[in-house]
C-alpha cells in the first residue's frame, strides 16, 4: 500500500496526539505521499494499492476524488511522463472498510470512472469478520463477472496474533444463525506441563496435532528466558537486575503473586500458527456454507425487516448461516448488474439493511463468550 494519513487521525482522541485537526490535513499529506510514491517508484518492481479512506460518506467521497488520479494511466502519463507508474489496486480503509453503503458507493465510483479494468486487487483493512468474508466474496464474484475477471478482494485480521499476545487462543469455529464466528478463550499455560508427552488439544489444526503440552509449556521456575531472566513460582522472591530481592515501600521482599508463564518464544509462534490456520479454515467453511444454504429457500432482500430484538431469529432459514448473508448475495447481484438503471438509488433505498450488516450496525454484537475476533486499527 501507499502511505496514507488515516482520516481518523484528525478526530479525537487521536487528533490530540497527531496535531491534525482537519480532515483536509490528512488528505493533503496523503496526496504529498502519493506524489512521492509515484515519482520515486520503480515501475514493475512492486504493485502499490491506492488507499481510499474517510470517516463518513462525505469525506470518503472527497478523499476518493482527490486520490483517484494516481490510479489513472492517462493522468500519470501526463503528470509524470510514464503511465507504468500508475498505482495497481486499492485498499479500502476507514469508513470504506466497515460501512457497506460506503463500500458499494466506492465500488460504483471505480466502475463509473473505469478504474476497475486492469486493477486486480482490492484489499479491505482489518476486516476479519466471517459474515464480511461472505459479503466480500459475493462482491468479488460480481466484479469478476461484469468488470474484471482477474480481480481479487482480500482482507486481513490481527486477531490470531493480538489474542495470542494476551494469552488467548482459537478453540473452535461455530456456524449458527446467531453465532457465526470463532470461539476464543484462555490458552494453556502451566509450568507443570514441562516435558509432558500429553497430546496438545485442538488437534483439528495441523500444528496442534503435532505438538504435546510439553512443547507448548516448556518452562518452569528456575529456567532462564531469552533475556536471561529466571522464571518464578508463586511465592518466590522477585529479583532485580543484580539478582538482589526487590523490596516494597515497607522494606519487605516482594514475592511473585503467581507462577511465571511457562511459554517461551516458540510457544507464542505455535499458538499464532494454530490460530491463523483456524481463522483461514473458518473463512473457507463460511463461504462453503453460504453457497449451499442460499438455495435452502427462495428468499428476497426486498422482504428483509429490521429485527425487533438483536437476538431475534424470526427471519432465519438456515441452521448454519445468518440470513443476512443470503439476502446480501442476491442484493449485490442486482446492484452490480450493469443493466441496473440506478444502483445509487438502490443503495439509498436499502440503507437500513446495509447499516444493519455494517460494523457498528445494529447487528454488530459480540457474544460474551467470544473475544471479538475482530480488531479495528
Write up what this structure looks like.
The protein has 377 residues and is of the alpha/beta class. Helix content is 37%, strand content 8%. The chain has helices at 14-18, 23-40, 57-67, 73-80, 100-112, 130-146, 159-165, 213-216, 265-293, 323-335, 343-349, 351-356, and strands at residues 49-52, 89-92, 121-124, 152-155, 168-175, 180-186. Strands 1-2-3-4 form a 4-stranded parallel sheet. The chain has a two-stranded antiparallel ribbon with strand order 5-6. Helix 5 (100-112) runs antiparallel to helix 11. The longest helix is centred in the last third of the chain and has 29 residues, at 265-293. The radius of gyration is 25 Å and the shape is globular.
Amino acid at each position: 500500500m501507499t502511505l496514507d494519513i488515516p482520516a481518523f487521525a484528525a478526530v479525537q482522541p487521536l487528533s490530540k496526539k497527531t496535531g491534525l485537526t482537519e480532515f483536509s490535513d490528512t488528505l493533503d499529506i496523503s496526496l504529498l505521499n502519493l506524489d512521492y510514491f509515484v515519482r520515486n517508484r520503480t515501475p514493475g518492481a512492486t504493485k502499490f494499492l491506492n488507499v481510499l479512506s474517510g470517516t463518513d460518506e462525505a469525506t470518503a467521497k472527497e478523499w476518493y476524488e482527490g486520490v483517484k488520479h494516481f490510479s489513472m494511466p492517462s493522468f500519470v502519463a501526463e503528470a509524470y511522463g510514464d503511465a507504468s507508474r500508475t498505482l495497481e489496486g486499492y485498499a479500502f480503509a476507514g469508513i470504506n472498510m466497515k460501512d457497506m453503503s460506503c463500500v458499494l458507493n466506492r465500488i460504483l465510483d471505480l466502475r463509473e470512472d473505469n478504474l476497475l479494468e486492469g486493477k486486480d486487487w482490492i484489499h479491505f483493512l482489518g476486516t476479519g469478520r466471517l459474515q464480511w468474508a461472505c459479503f466480500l466474496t459475493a462482491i468479488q464474484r460480481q466484479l469478476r463477472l461484469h468488470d474484471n475477471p482477474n480481480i481479487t478482494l482480500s482482507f486481513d485480521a490481527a486477531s490470531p496474533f493480538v489474542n495470542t499476545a494476551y494469552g488467548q487462543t482459537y478453540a473452535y469455529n461455530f456456524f449458527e444463525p446467531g453465532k457465526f464466528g470463532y470461539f476464543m478463550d484462555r490458552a494453556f499455560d502451566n509450568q507443570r506441563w514441562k516435558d509432558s508427552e500429553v497430546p496438545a488439544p485442538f488437534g483439528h489444526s495441523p500444528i496442534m496435532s503435532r505438538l504435546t503440552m510439553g512443547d507448548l509449556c516448556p518452562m518452569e521456575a528456575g529456567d532462564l528466558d531469552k533475556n536471561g531472566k529466571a522464571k518464578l513460582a508463586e511465592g518466590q522472591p522477585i529479583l532485580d537486575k543484580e539478582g538482589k530481592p526487590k523490596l516494597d515501600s515497607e522494606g519487605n521482599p516482594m514475592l511473585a503473586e503467581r507462577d511465571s508463564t511457562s511459554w517461551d518464544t516458540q510457544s507464542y509462534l505455535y499458538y499464532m500458527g494454530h490460530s491463523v490456520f483456524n481463522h483461514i479454515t473458518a473463512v473457507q467453511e463460511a463461504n462453503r456454507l453460504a453457497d449451499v444454504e442460499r438455495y435452502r429457500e427462495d428468499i428476497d432482500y426486498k422482504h428483509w425487516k429490521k429485527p425487533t430484538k438483536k437476538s431475534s431469529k424470526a427471519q432465519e432459514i438456515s441452521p448454519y448461516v445468518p440470513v443476512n448473508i443470503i439476502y446480501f448475495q442476491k442484493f449485490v447481484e442486482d446492484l452490480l448488474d450493469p443493466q441496473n438503471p440506478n444502483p445509487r438509488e438502490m443503495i439509498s433505498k436499502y440503507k437500513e439493511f446495509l447499516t444493519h450488516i455494517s460494523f457498528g450496525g445494529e447487528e454488530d454484537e459480540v457474544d460474551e463468550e467470544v473475544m471479538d475476533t475482530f480488531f479495528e486499527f
